[in-house]
Amino acid sequence: GSIRVYPNPVMDRTINIHYSKMPAGRYNLQLISQAGQIMYNSQLIINQPEGIRFIKLSKNNASGNYQLLISDENGRKFLQQIIL
Hints:
Layout: E1 2-11, E2 14-20, E3 25-33, E4 38-46, E5 50-56, E6 65-72, E7 77-83
Antiparallel strand pairs: 1-2, 2-5, 3-4, 3-6, 6-7
């Protein structure tokens, strides 16, 4: 399976997550600041072979560099640098 995060840098405070051929299941999404703080935490339930999830960030999230961590129930992780 594959995960693509775009646009990067983020525009209009919206992160698009496109997944394809990912195993069905529950995934945890976390946006982590450079200081290690979790700024956004949500779950993504995948039950279709392909889809897009939109994350709308609040204006409280300061501009800067973040990491988007997507992890599944088996401990597999996808990590992407995000510029906000």
